[in-house]
Amino acid sequence: MNNVAIFGYGTVGKGVKDLISLNPQFNLVSIFDMPSKKDELGSLLVTKIDEIINNNKIDTVIECLGGDTLAHEVIIKSLSNHKNVITSNKETISLHLKEYLDLANKNNVSIQFEASVGGGIPIIYPLSIQSDFDSINEIIGILNGTTNFILTKMQKEHMPINNAILLAQKLGFAEKDPTSDLEGLDMVRKANILASIVTKKEINNDDIPHFGISKLNDNILKQINDKNLILKMLTRIEFKKDHISILIIPTCLRGDNLLSKIDYETNAISVFGKYQDPLMFVGKGAGKYPTASAILQDLIRVSKNKEYKYCNLKEKAIVKNEFTGTYLCFDDKNKLHELTNPDKKDLSKYKFVCLVD
User: Which CATH superfamily does the domain covering 2-112 fall into?
Assistant: First the structure.
C-alpha cells in the first residue's frame, strides 16, 4: 500500500483527493488544512504540518498549498524526512529547484512536478526524457490557461476584459488576485522550469523579461484584429550555443499558425529538437481535474519507481534578453507605434506591447 498525504485542500487538493479515492493502490492518510475544514474532512484533517512530516507510515506527500513560504518549509521537511514529494507549485519549484533536487538526491527520495507546467498536459516527463538524447532548440507555447481563456472570450465573444477576468475566476481558472497571470509572472515560472529541465542548469526568474495583458482594451484589440491577426499570450524559449533567450509576451499570430487555434483554457506547447521536430502537446491548462490528473501521473510513476531521476543543477544558466522582430506598441492614447528590433527600455515606454510572429 502506498500511503499518501496532501498539503492544501483548495481546488487542486480536492481534485487530487477525488482521483486518489478512485485508485485502490493508494491510501490517503491525512490532509493538512485549516480547522474550518473539519466538517468536510473529518479524521483526515490535520492542522499541524509536523503531524504529517513525522508520520513514518506516509511515503509520499502531495503539496497543493500554492505560494512559496509554507510550501518551501513543507517540501524541505518532507524530503529531509525521506518522503517523496509531488507538487503542482510552479512558484516554489522555479525559486528552489536546485535546493530541492540536492536534498532529494541526498536522501534518496524523489521530487516530481509534472503539474507545475501546462495543467493536465504531460510535458515535464517527456521533455526530460527527450532532453537526455536530443538537442532541444526551441520551445514555444501557450502556457497559461487563464490568459488564453480571457483572450478567447475577448476576441471570439467580444467580452470586455474585466468581465472575462471575473468569469475566469468564477470558473476556477483565475485566482482572486489574477496579477501573476495577467502580468506574465506565472509563465516566467513555467519557462524557468522548462528551461532548467532542458539545460540542467539553474535559472533566475528575474532574468526573464515578461509583458502582460492587464492594460489590454477593446480599442487596442480591434486594431490588432483589423490586421487579421489573433492575439495569444506566448512563452518563447530558445536554446543557443552559449546562452538561453526567454521571452514572455502577447503575440500576434496569423490564422494559419496552429497556436492561433488553441482557445479558452487549453494550453499548447511546441518543442523543436534536432531529431524530433516538432512535437506538440495540447490539453487543458487550468482547472481542478486537469492539474490533479498530472499529479496522479507523478504519483503512479513514483509508486512504481518509474519516475524521472533528476540530476543536481550544478551551475547557473546564462539568460540573455533578445527582442528581434516587429513589435506593435500602444501608448496611453491607444495610438499604435511599430518598432523593429527594440530593446527592453524601448518597449517599457508603452502601455501595451505585442510581438508579431
Answer: NAD(P)-binding Rossmann-like Domain (3.40.50.720)
153, 190, 232, 284: the active-site residue = 190
Please indicate, yes or no, whether the overall pTM of this predicted structure exceeds 0.85: yes
Instruction: Look at domain 124-285+316-356 and name its CATH class.
Output: alpha beta
190 is catalytic: yes
Cα–Cα distance between 308 and 161 in angstroms, integer?
A: 40
Res. 317 pLDDT band, cuts 50 70 90 = very high
Higher pLDDT, 119 or 260: 260
* Beta pairing partners, 245: 238
The model's pLDDT over 268-281, given as tens digits with 9 standing for 90+, comes to: 999 999 998 889 99
Distances (CA, A) of 182 to 8, 32, 242: 24, 30, 31
The span from the CA of 108 to the CA of 79, in Å, is: 9
CA-based end-to-end distance of the chain = 51
| pLDDT band, residue 166 (cuts 50/70/90) | very high
**How do 60-63 and 84-87 pair as beta strands?**
parallel
Cα–Cα distance for residue pair 144/232, rounded to 1 Å:
10
pLDDT (0 to 100) of residue 145 = 93
Q: Is 353 helix (H, G, I), strand (E, B) or coil?
A: strand
Q: Give the single-character DSSP code of 258.
A: G
Asked if 343 and 322 touch (Cβ cutoff 8 Å), the reply is no
Contacts of 150 (CB under 8 A, 6+ apart): 161, 164, 165, 168, 174, 213
For the chain, give every domain's residue range.
2-112, 124-285+316-356
DSSP letter (8 states) at residue 174 = S
| Cβ neighbours, 10 Å, residue 283 | 19
